Amino acid sequence: MRTALVIGAGLIGTSAALSLTSRGVTVHLDDHDLDRARTAASLGAGTDAAPDGPVDLVIVAVPPAHVARAVADAMVRGLGRAYLDVASVKGGPRRELEALLRGTGQDLAAYLGTHPMAGKEKSGPLAATGDLFEGRPWVLTPTRDTDTEALNLALELVSFCRAVPIVMDADAHDRAVALVSHMPHLVSSMVAARLENAEEAAVRLCGPGIRDVTRIAASDPRMWIDILSANPGPVADLLAEVSADLDETVRALRALQSEDETARKEGVGGVEDVLRRGNAGQTRVPGKHGSAPRVYEAVVVLITDQPGQLARIFADAERAGVNIEDVRIEHATGQQAGHVQLMVEPQGVSQLTQALRERGWAVRT
Ligand SMILES: NC(=O)c1ccc[n+]([C@@H]2O[C@H](COP(=O)([O-])OP(=O)(O)OC[C@H]3O[C@@H](n4cnc5c(N)ncnc54)[C@H](O)[C@@H]3O)[C@@H](O)[C@H]2O)c1
Ligand SMILES: O=C(O)C(=O)C[C@]1(C(=O)O)C=C[C@@H](O)C=C1
Q1: CB 220 near ligand 2, within 6 Å
Q2: 91 vs 336: which has the higher pLDDT
Q3: What are phi and psi of 103, to 5 degrees?
Q4: I want to staple 255 with a disulfide (CB 3.0 to 4.6 A). Which of 244, 267, 275, 276 is the partner?
């Protein structure tokens, strides 16, 4: 691939453009908000000038409700040799596109619906990074009519972004993401909504647990209305299952308040059941690079809010010969201090702890 056109220079479009540009592809950036295309270009994601002929690949990265129209317009104008979109839902936009192309003389052969399973709760080009898709699954939904050229160009894009291609049927994809993305998003919003009118004294105590559960609740509601509107059935079915678990758990907790010992025992059983099923499900969440989950242990280091602290910790860990697999930073509420959790292989814990303590860090394991 030598040339690409990204329509929608937001988080996903600009991230893909950054990856392609770094691999030598000439990327043209288009957005109905010209400032966004200009911002993406200033970040090194490509040029906001229009291409002077058809590009190899047109990447449509606009909100799901606008995808079919944007792809159809690009196809009718002959902007590329192949076209793909990156929307979070696949069945609806494809059917909509089919309807829009009817009678235009265009068919769907040069189009491929795709979905990178990577993202952020932030939107826009300023949130984009060139490594956003590294090691993440990128779903491709070809049909038997898809051109080999379109599929190969999509595979090249996935490879340039260092993502992992996964081929799926569009409707099967939508059922799968209802489970692993859309239903969890709503549950996160519902948990976060409890905080809206909560007392400040309670909110000040927020720790890592609630941060993990509510991060995605900060996402743009307009984008998520589009996503959920295109996949309502599967998401509603899953939320009904969550709702049944909620009812059971409320019943079990009420039983724990009972004076009657048998009822209390049943309550413990009910609570234990949901916690154990949660453990079992959580172990199935894949780890880094889509591999089987690995168990890391946390070495927690206290830092103060001064420049260069993280760089010093990493340098000290490297000197100790311990590989850091993942990092989380917890800022202490209302203080100029925080904790850095360094996730390492269990056998590296004592070596790293000792090395960091020797270099003056306050460490908790
Ligand atoms: N945010 C995520 O985590 C994530 C992850 C994977 C896939 N996606 C999908 O990627 C797509 C883009 O999402 P995003 O997070 O980058 O959103 P974003 O809001 O950051 O970017 C979307 C961009 O599209 C532009 N736009 C809207 N309509 C347009 C049109 N008709 N023509 C040209 N430009 C138009 C907007 O101005 C905006 O700059 C969506 O379809 C979304 O479902 C998002
Ligand atoms: O990490 C996040 O912020 C996301 O929500 C990313 C996430 C997800 O994993 O659910 C959200 C929607 C996209 O379609 C793909 C990825």
Answers
A1: no
A2: 91
A3: 85, 0
A4: 267
Smallest-distance ligand from the CA of 62 = 1
Residue nearest to atom 28 of ligand 1 (CA): 62
CATH architecture of structural domain 297-364:
2-Layer Sandwich (3.30)
Domain 3-169, what fold?
Answer: Rossmann fold (3.40.50)
Residue 205: is it exposed, middle or buried by C-beta count within 10 angstroms (0-12/13-18/19+)? exposed
Run of H or E including 116: strand 111-116
Handedness of CA 235, 239, 240, 241 (dihedral sign): positive
Residue of 180, 181, 235 to test ligand 2 pocket, by largest number of atoms within 8 Å of CB: 181
The CB of 139 under 6 Å from ligand 1? The reply is no
This complex has an ipTM of 0.98
Ligand 1 centre to CA of 223 (Å) is 8
User: What does 150-208 look like in DSSP terms, one character per residue?
Assistant: HHHHHHHHHHHTT-EEEE--HHHHHHHHIIIIIHHHHHHHHHHHTTTT--HHHHTT--H
- Specify the DSSP element, H or E, that contains 224: helix 221-229
Q: Cα-flanking dihedrals φ and ψ of residue 107, to 5°? A: -120, -175
Question: What pLDDT, in 10s, does the model give residues 68-82?
Answer: 999 999 999 999 999
Could you report the per-residue pLDDT of 288-303, keeping only the tens digit for each?
555 555 678 889 999 8
How many CB atoms within 10 Å of residue 164? 19
Dump pLDDT digits (tens) for 219-231. Answer: 999 999 999 999 9
- Alpha carbon nearest to ligand 1 atom 42, residue: 87
